[in-house]
Amino acid sequence: MPPAAQKNFRGIPRDGTLARVVTIAFLLIAGLAVAQSFPELPANVGAWRAVGAVEKHAGQGLYTYMNGGAELYLEHGFEELMVRFYERGNDQISVELYRMKDSGYGVFTLLRSENGEPVAIADAGFRSGYYVIFSSGKFFCAVTAQSEFADAGEAAVEIGKTVAAQLPPAGSARTQIELLPENDRLLHSDKIIAGPVGLRNVSDTLAGLFSGFAEGAAARYGRDKEASVLAGFLRWRSAAQAAAAFKQATQRASKEKDFGAKSANGEISFFDFEGKSGLAVVSGNQVLFAIAREPTRARELVTQLRR
Predict the structure, then answer these.
(1) Helix, strand, or coil (residue 245)
(2) In this structure, are strands 44-45 and 277-283 parallel, antiparallel, or unpaired?
(3) Domains in the chain with CATH codes
């Protein structure tokens, strides 16, 4: 018997077979994990039939799929996109399933329509006219009718629920939102801010003042949107970084006459581009902010955030 084929006392070959077996098993398990984390989109959903090949884009390749808008997804940790189209006669619906590094909820909050309505899909779902969006763990999904037809919204919901049912169960990461005051917070107004693109979505004025933050969140407070107060926070990795960013914001505000900015005692008071009163306060590694019609109301919200 050749030495390479000899077995040890446990009956395991000593010619490298074990290493190959372990490697193959690992690859199979890893492949299964990937399949479970990013399942194939269904071939059929009721009367809807999938058409064409599944389209996939990963990382920076997202720019080849969308002409504008990729920055928001990349800012929230985009990893891969799977696209599939469904047809029913002359009607067509697209499904875009995005896998993010940590959570799909952040993108969901920024793309949720103010004129839409919530739907019971996965962690959080929203419908507006002919399209539906939802988040589920690491995933964000957009289901969009490509033309107007009678039951476009209902069909988008049906397909969205079918896709969501195939995703791995996972809780939504909303830790930033949990730090915002709940009292008087308008329903579905919360937004997770991961970078400058998201901050511009929340407030152009704040985006013009602050940069370099690690994360943030904002929401609207009051009885209705028209009279509501925008309030939230931006967080840096250290108090020193927050202080430096706040100093830069003070300098930027003083150069922009439209801001009407004043700074003192770690505070910046300013006017946004709509003429509303804003207040920003540095507190540890955070900048707390509020924008309202009345300066006193903005200060009230900043005080609540400090608590």
Answers:
(1) helix
(2) unpaired
(3) 40-165 (3.40.1000), 175-306 (3.40.1000)
